# Entry
Amino acid sequence: MTKSALVIGGGIAGIQASLDLADRDIHVYLVEKDPTIGGKMCRLDKTFPTNDCSACILSPKMADCAGHPNVTVLSYSEVVKVDGEAGDFKVTVKKKPRYVNMSSCTGCGDCVKACVLGGEKAKIPDEFEYGLVNRGAIYIPHAQAVPRVALIDAEHCLMISKGKCGKKCEKACMKGAINFDDKETEEVIEVGSIIAAAGFQLWDAGIATEYGYGRFDNVVTSMEYERMMCASGPDHGHIKCPSNKEDPKKIAYIQCCGSRSEKKGWKKYCSSVCCTYAAKQAIITKEHSDVQEDIFFMDIRSYGKEFEAYIKRAESQYKINMHRGARVSHIEEDPVTKQLTVNYTDKDGNAVGAVYDLVVLSIGLNPPADAENLSKVLGVNLNEYGFCETSVFKPLETSRPGILVSGAFSAPKDIPTTVAESSGAAAKAGSYIVDENFVPCAPKEYPAEKDVVGKPVRIGVWVCECGINIGATVNVPEVAKYAETLPNVVYSTSTMYACAQDCLQAISEAISTYDLTRVVVASCTPRTHEPLFRVACREGGLNPYLFNMANIRDQCSWIHMHEPEAATKKAKDLVRMAIAKAALLEPLQGSKIPVTSAAAVIGGGITGMTTALDIAAQNIPVHLVEKEGQLGGQALKFRHKEDGVDTQEFIKELIDKVNNNKLITVHLNAEIKDLPGFVGNFKLQLMDGTDEAVGAVILAIGAPAYQPTEYNYGTDAKVKTNIEVENEIADGKFNAQDVAFIQCVGSRNDKVSYCSRVCCTSSLRNAIAIKLANPTANVTIFHKDIRSYGFREEMYRKACEVGVRFLRYDEAAPLPAYDGSTVTAFDETLGADVSVPVDCVVLANGIAPAREEKEVIAKMLKIPISKDGFYFEAHQKLRPVDFATEGVYVAGLAHWPKHMDECIAQGSGAASRALTVISKEFLTSEGIVASVNEDYCDGCGVCEGCCDYKAITIVETDNGLKSNVNAGLCKGCGCCVASCPSGAMEQKGFKNSQIIAEVDACLDFPVGGE
Amino acid sequence: MHVLTSLLEESEFMADFEPRIVAFCCNWCSYAGADGAGVARLQMPTNFRIIRTMCSARVDPEFVLRAFSKGADGVIVLGCHPADCHYIGGNYRARRRIALLRMVLEQYGFDPKRLKLEWVSASEGEKFQKTIVEFVDTIKALGPTPLVKGDE
# Structure
């Protein structure tokens, strides 16, 4: 029997892992301890470096999870026991009582308003808002909660704790959903593999007593500040000082709060994300209003994709003051004005006290609160910092086979890394489930669709009261009665809850009872509820595209609460418009596109080999294409150990695995001729005549080391690169006494503006090795910032401990000078030039993008390249390994400079994304695609030019040039339709006639109809 | 034929003038922003009716002209912020089309302020509210559509 998978944690990590597994037709249980999925990300205002609204990009994924037929969301639940072994786990899940029946609750919020502990007098801190506001005992976690149902906080509920309160909520609930006798339950589920995506908890800012959090009103944590900035937060995005609710004029951000310190209660590691999120908060704040903003930090760690440019923008464009190397000692509060004095040492060594209205503490990331318990339940090890233990070469695997990890549970990390890892963990988890007996989740079966073409239009209308949400403002029975008078309407009724199971069933039944050919529901928003009603139509044998919705709640009753008459008129208009469009709707089918179950992986380095193995592990053939004569890529030059394992041994093992895998065909010395095709149907064409059909293409072509031209490299024997020194050390040939490392050679300069991410760590590793082998050696690292993010901070600490000297040179200054025997730079801390004699200069040369090489393939696949010369993914935050072009993926250095563990995780991630496509026999395209009426088409090509998805081509036909839409590539935006000068182009489901009918139905009648 | 008149003189009924406005919202950002306004219970005038398209680039100039020809006092097109378009660059195309369309409208005697393009993200319920309130005010100040229905 095919097993399910279990994902623990419903934050972005768990959501992504679940969706990847579900889209690969594996059933998933998603267990979340909180009452809603969404984790920390759904509390963020914006996300760096694109300043995307966090809720906007996450909410669709949350809804997708909740509605996915292959995902069972077990919210407000915890895993308490795991028996068995990889491939065959028996997991006990404890479901906490909500005291509200989830299947009958509609999330209307009537109970929340009724609670005697709620409203103005509420005293229970709202967890979602980090206690910035209070809530009652019965509550809905937040507006976008998934599932959006209420629950009772038993600890505070007077009825449950004391047996008295008058059961106000029970009386208010018209659905009878309240159940004060609800009990904790347990269920045992059988799963093949487990992904632990337990996330992180925030560092307790109260530990930093020197910063006065909890004592001073105007000192807030960065997460509280997110809520303060957020439009959906307590103050609707108006940033105010907590003490007096006035606009702050000066804001300070204090970095490394809880991180990079050996103080008691602080964490030694770097939390990896705070530098960039502080810059984001400062930028967004500046966009809100003109505020003076200062960021105090030790090093700025903008190592991620386009982060360096982001920080630069914060500084130059937004005029945010950056205080480098400034650790704040303490904060004082003026007891009267509540203003704050931030005490720090400036770069000239002077003690400075500057006054601010608001201080934001950039708090770090801790292991999740229940990490220890979870590790015991799962039987997996934690590392010395309390995070889930992994290793560089197995970044997604825990100490127990069959249990994978992704996201911040294994180390502090940003969202794109988390998403790539979570996809990767899904690929690994799938390999324990997919074997020769694997049975994919069957698509749901529906009754045969009735033929409506050419038949009279018979419309059924349901107008929803939504409890009192619509009914209290809009006269729903009147609207339903009005609808009955409109053309083509044969049935119209009002209903208390259109989305409730009873009404959905009524809709399905009415389709045959009244021989309906169209269904219109007037209720909330199609964004959340259209899928539900479409399913009801399908259940009744009606094509789902014959359904239309009028939004009379979110866009009517809720925004015109004090104008019942006008709102009722508007509701009538909206219903009339929906009916007018519905009459013209046509049954649509997504077209079926056959898929070739095979992948091409371009690039045979660590990343590409990982991708190939993960795809092959799920019984799908792979063509692995390498331009060199051997597999291994850049890492063949590495000689150091990671977690005690020699890199070369690891690579040898990896190459053997690839060569011994019957499903992987390796093409060495291969040059790509072309990669024509589209999702599910590409051709891998090589110069040697190879021509193979593949369903997906993964680009793992890497990026080379920057070849230095600085410091007479190549002619001066004293000047070496980090890799050369690493090899000399490994061979025992390194014998220099006075060594200077020079950071940022080929990075962070006028020509190459980005940070190459890995060079700081390489230098630290070599410097430590040199000092350990020869404690008398003089080793100096000349740097701008040391970017040993995450647990790599330990290397920085270790380097300091063994006596490596660090000299920070000015960021804007040219590289340190070298005269053949000494290296000289201006030391910011000393305020003077410092010269050190050298017999070896080690260049921390960065990573070059090799843009030209990338462009060749980019042109073949029509994919974009970023301004820095790396491949540009579909979405920097949530689709880090996808392209807008479906079926093409990227991983490793081709995407951005990164460490080996990150390459491996991303390689697995790309495999997972590809698997969601190539594991299927057919893909079904969206029904609302563009189509061409060839009778009108002149083949002018305007549409072709405006399609961002390259879905349109102009083809030669017997009747001349005609536009041709590839339904597999079309995303249904309708841009081409609006561009067509001859009216030949149409968008199904949004046809010109249908939209015009809406316009006419709106304006041809007086307001509110007749 | 429609006969266009020049700007209406100030008249008695102007005070009670309730404009009719058609709002085109893209599915991914502005329609979601309008929903967000609802979720936050942000109150606004009832003068507008939303028509949903998948992308602001789907808004054919014909729809806008149709709305005006049917007597709409104002038309507003709402899309995703620059660079946030769900469909890569649809909103940029909408921007170009609306810019041209405003010129066309002016040629026909319409104040171009009667057609507005604005960016509202899915999280900007408040901006949606503000945009609608301001646009209703703008149209109220401009008065009823200059279009007077002649014999069709």
